[in-house]
Design a protein that fits this description.
The chain contains eleven helices and 18 strands. By secondary structure, it is α/β, with parallel strands linked by helices. Strands 3, 5, 6, 9, 10, 17 and 18 form a seven-stranded mixed sheet that branches. A six-stranded parallel sheet has the order 13-12-11-14-15-16, with helices on both faces. It starts with a strand and ends with a strand.
Length: 341
């Protein structure tokens, strides 16, 4: 079967490649319908990764956040037309201790293998999760990003000590919004406080108990645990501010991605006996758990609609490039491409 793959050849250069796929009895054929652009996709598109990395990975199809419809399933797991989330993590082995998203052998769409910018995707049945019929498909398109926050909170619940009165979230962007929203529903007894740099953005965090500009935090404020959702160049400042305000033996979850090494105050990490853990990507159980959370609290979808930015129809290379250019200039929110047949 001939499949059309839309690959990034170089910064801001998409090209069409044709791949002959041999159909088998183990993989499900899915037609992507809604694809969401991630910051990681933008770093490739704009050539903001190291030159060595770009040479090693390009050409490559981008996008690891998306949903689609089942076209054909030889395994009989899904009926044709079933709407599914596509899981980008592709494990090749199992480990009794290490989760699938941390195994160094695992492949990941739009990183080590082609992403979802293809006419058809061929995936093992366990790499798909059925979507509820009534879910907003635009919001569902960026469920992968939401699943990362879900995963981080799950790890936190397994690790952090029992004093969880006040939880701080640093970051007023998409990731901070999603993480604090899920914390609201998964830890309803805790006070959720969000810290950011924009009063305009913080005004959208209506579900949080309190919000503060990072330049106006009260000196006597204490946080039991924290989630860092800033990333990039400001990440070190955010992490060090967390260390200043957090109580001894607290847990800090780091989610923000940085390209450079981040200098942090290790002296106070030692003096306070802090636990720091990083979270990257997610696994099937996180997607399944997230869908169950959506079903239990459908209002979460309504809140997540607030971070939908541009929704663009895409039919070919020019439309894809235009969507990426639009995404560069967004103030906040997720850019979603609706893939038209």
């Amino acid at each position: 079967m001939l499949n059309t793959v839309y690959q990034l050849k170089g910064p801001r250069q998409f090209e069409i490649a044709f791949c002959d796929v041999e159909l088998d009895d183990s993989n499900v054929c899915v037609r992507p319908t809604h694809l969401s652009i991630c910051n990681a996709d933008q770093r490739y598109y704009q050539g903001k990764r190291a030159e060595k990395v770009l040479k090693e990975k390009l050409p490559m199809a981008l996008i690891h956040e998306g949903i689609g419809k089942v076209v054909h399933d030889p395994t009989g797991t899904y009926a044709p037309g079933t709407a599914v989330i596509m899981i980008p993590n592709q494990p090749v082995e199992q480990d009794e201790v290490i989760a699938e998203n941390y195994l160094r052998s695992s492949k990941f769409r739009a990183s080590s293998i082609d992403g979802f910018l293809q006419e058809y995707i061929f995936m093992a049945p366990d790499r798909l999760v059925v979507l509820p019929d009534d879910i907003n498909r635009i919001v569902a398109a960026y469920s992968e990003l939401v699943s990362v926050s879900f995963h981080a909170i799950s790890r936190f619940l397994e690790t952090a000590h029992a004093k969880r009165t006040t939880i701080g979230v640093w970051g007023d962007g998409n990731l901070g919004y999603i993480t604090s929203l899920l914390l609201r529903y998964r830890m309803p007894e805790s006070k959720i406080i969000v810290f950011g740099i924009s009063e305009y953005k913080l005004s959208d965090f209506s579900f949080a108990d309190e919000t503060y500009l990072v330049s106006e935090i009260p000196d006597d404020l204490k946080i039991d645990h924290a989630f860092e959702c800033v990333g990039g160049a400001p990440a070190p400042s955010a992490i060090n501010q967390i260390i200043d305000y957090i109580t001894p033996e607290a847990t800090i979850s780091i989610l923000g991605v940085t390209e450079e090494l981040a200098p942090i105050n290790t002296r106070m990490i030692l003096e306070k006996g802090l636990y720091l853990f990083g979270t990257s990507r997610s696994g099937r159980e996180d997607f399944v758990g997230l869908i169950e959370l959506y079903k239990k609290h459908p209002e979460i979808i309504t809140y997540l609609e607030n971070i939908t930015g541009s929704v663009l129809d895409v039919r070919g290379v020019k439309d894809i490039a235009a969507a990426f250019e639009t995404d560069i200039h967004k103030l906040i929110g997720k850019t979603v491409m609706v893939w038209n047949e």
